[in-house]
């Protein structure tokens, strides 16, 4: 089985990448498993941060590396927390959910979008970046136990339950990560 380094320390992301890569006969090995440090995310866009993480992991390991930078953009917060999603609420997700629900309620504006940039960095220094997004609304009450991060407050369009309620089987078909990955897939098959 081929292996690829996935430049993340986030177990939720790693699990989703492992599920996406498995049908291609590729095993995901995480930067955390290899003990690689995480670079500072100094980029001002999802794409810039995905690229700097992928290049950092590729240079540290000498092998091809895949990185993802992703987040939730909330219309009532003018697109925040966006690239700062992992820091919003300082790791206290229940508190972050309540802030987002309060903002959506106050503005009566429930639309939100998950965005994911995936970058593949190869040992020759080349990079290829793909963006996927998934549109939906904020749930008025957090629900469900599957997934990670903001999954309990995001209801994708076309569904009436959150990602955390829908579970991996549905999320892995329609998510921002799956959509970015679908674009990369053709490249990985080469
Ligand atoms: P990053 O590691 O800087 O890319 O931060 C990504 C953050 O965005 C995660 O820690 C989550 O808070 C959020 N996020 C990204 N993708 C998802 C997802 O699929 N579900 C829930 N939250 C996500």
Topology:
Blueprint: E1 2-6, H1 11-21, E2 26-30, H2 46-61, E3 65-74, H3 93-107, E4 111-121, E5 127-138, E6 154-156, H4 163-166, H5 168-174, H6 176-189
Parallel strand pairs: 1-2, 1-3
Antiparallel strand pairs: 3-4, 4-5, 5-6
Helix pairs in contact: 5-6
The structure holds inosinic acid.
Inosinic acid binds at residues 10, 41, 69-72, 85-86, 114, 147-151, 175, 177.
Percent strand? 15-25%
CATH domain topology: Maf protein
Helix content: 25-40%
Which strand order do you get reading across the main beta sheet? Answer: 2-1-3-4-5-6
Number of H/I helices: 6
Taking the sheet with the most strands, its summary is:
6 strands, mixed
Decide which structural class fits the backbone. Answer: alpha/beta
Mean pLDDT: 94
- What is the overall shape? globular
> Would you identify the CATH architecture?
Alpha-Beta Complex
Name of the CATH class: Alpha Beta
| Gap from first CA to last CA | 15 Å
Unreliable stretches: none
Rounded to an integer in angstroms, the radius of gyration calculated over CA atoms is 16 Å
Distinct ligands, ions and cofactors found in the model: inosinic acid
The string of secondary-structure elements, in order, is EHEHEHEEEHHH
């Amino acid at each position: 089985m081929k292996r690829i380094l996935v430049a993340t320390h986030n177990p939720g992301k790693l699990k989703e990448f492992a599920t996406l890569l498995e049908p291609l006969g590729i095993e995901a090995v995480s930067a955390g498993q290899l003990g690689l440090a995480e670079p500072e995310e100094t980029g001002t866009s999802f794409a810039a941060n995905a690229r700097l993480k992928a290049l950092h992991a590729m240079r540290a390991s000498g092998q091809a590396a895949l990185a993802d930078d992703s987040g939730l953009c909330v219309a009532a917060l003018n697109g925040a927390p966006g690239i700062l999603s992992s820091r919003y609420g300082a790791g206290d997700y229940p508190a972050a959910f309540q802030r987002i629900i309060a903002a959506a309620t106050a503005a009566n504006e429930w639309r939100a979008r998950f965005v994911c940039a995936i970058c593949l960095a190869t040992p020759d220094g080349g990079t290829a970046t793909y963006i996927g997004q998934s549109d939906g609304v904020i749930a008025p009450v957090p629900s469900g136990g599957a997934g990670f991060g903001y999954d309990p407050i995001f209801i994708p369009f076309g569904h009436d339950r959150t990602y955390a309620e829908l579970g991996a089987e549905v999320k892995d078909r329609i998510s921002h990560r799956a959509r970015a990955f679908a674009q990369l897939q053709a490249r990985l098959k080469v």
